[in-house]
Amino acid sequence: MVFLDKPKEISHGRLAFISEIFKIKGTIVLKVVPQIILAAFVGLFANLVKVLYCGEGVASNDECDVTFNMDGHLGVSVVLSFLLVFRADLAELVVHFLSRLQVLEMS
User: Which is more confident, 7 or 97?
Assistant: First the structure.
């Protein structure tokens, strides 16, 4: 039993390296781009509401009721950073385990 697919043959043309780098089909890019666009529009809308309600020169959350304290963003970023590192470590562990399993089955 083999868990990994056979490696795909890469063409050896002049632009093969460039086309392989910028390949979109079969990647996660097509699923992530709509979420990024939606997040950008939500951010632009929130900034527009802040500017219309508070004015241009608002720098801190004490000056206007619509602005947010930065401590909330800091808390979320710490949790997301932890999850990202944990997921990367877990993925490395799974790859190592599967490669060892594949070696054991071949012998």
Answer: 97
- What is the Cβ-side half-sphere exposure of residue 70, based on CA atoms within 13 angstroms? 2
Q: Where are the domains of the chain?
A: 9-68, 69-107
Using one digit for the tens of pLDDT, what is the confidence trace for 60-98? Answer: 777 777 676 667 777 888 888 888 787 777 777 777 777
What pLDDT sits at residue 105? 65
Nearest C-alpha neighbor of 94 from the set 86, 106, 82, 83: 86
Structure tokens at 32: 């992530």
Are 67 and 50 in contact by the 8 Å Cβ rule? The answer is yes
Residue 9 has φ and ψ, to the nearest 5°, of -75, 130
| Residue 102: CA count within 13 A, CB half-sphere | 10
Residue type, 25: K
**What are the start-end ranges of the H helices in 5-107?**
16-21, 29-54, 70-106
